[in-house]
Amino acid sequence: MKIVVAGSSGVVGKLLLPRLMRAGHEVIGLTRSRENAEIIRLTGARTVIVDVLDRERTISAIGEVRPDAIIHQLTALGQRDFAENTRIRIQGTCNLVQAALASGVSRMIAQSIAWAYEPREGPATEEVPLDIDAPMPRKRTIDGIVALERAVAKVPNHVILRYGIFYGKGTWYDCNGFMAEEIRQKRIPATEGVTSFLHVEDAANAAVLALNWPSGPVNIVDDKPAKGTEWLPLYANAIGAPLPNFESCSQDWERGASNLKARSSYGWTPLYPTWKAGLTLGLRHRMD
User: Fold this and answer.
1) Domain ranges of the chain
2) Nearest of 74, 54, 71, 70 to residue 62 by alpha carbon
3) Phi (first) and psi of residue 204, to 5 degrees
4) What is the mean pLDDT of each run of 10 residues along the chain (288 residues)?
5) From residue 228, how far is each of 32, 50, 59, 197 by CA, in Å?
6) Domain 2-168+198-222+257-271: which topology?
7) For residue 219, what are the β-bridge partners?
């Protein structure tokens, strides 16, 4: 299968390219950076330089390649540019979908998030509605996700991967990442809010498998949603940070998500079943 990966130089994309090639696929990495284009070429993948916010260029580039599938892993979160990230989710996704439809691409896999569900009790399944009535500033994130998922659903065969909070190499939760520094500075309190985590290797593996999954959203998260009062002290200890302040509060949408559909219906098995296996033990090993 000929596959275009948009976001091929990101934390998931870097892991995804070699996995796709080992599976026998022909892989083309999209990037808007010439520097990243050279990095992608070193993996053995072909490269196309294009900014997906440029509609005409995106349609032309996809038309020239004529792939069988597009995997959309684009974000601007590495630079913590949230306005740009929203533009990519809305405008960039729309351009990719229009390019796919114009070129007869019938399959798209897209990155979404597993913390966009409306408030209820317990981990969210895929049947729970997205939190479209969320207050600001959360609403900006939800609006971007809703726009992304609606656009991707126009492609005949589409899988929306609702990922948990990433950890692993190159993420905010890496030992030198943004969140690690915030926690070292005691800027993040340990609350009752529940989070579902996901190792980036499991995110990449799911994207490969999703090429053969039926259309629709699927939660890609680990097995054990965790309260901040549980995971944050252990994480702080793993990175040599002081214990966080504890607060008996949470946001009503901080509920975690269930991976039952991915595990039971699609046969996805995470390499890191719980955050304890990677978020804390893995970091401690890397820092020793």
Assistant:
1) 2-168+198-222+257-271
2) 70
3) -65, -45
4) 96 96 96 88 92 97 97 89 92 98 98 97 97 96 98 98 96 94 97 98 98 98 97 95 96 97 97 90 55
5) 37, 40, 43, 12
6) Rossmann fold (3.40.50)
7) 162
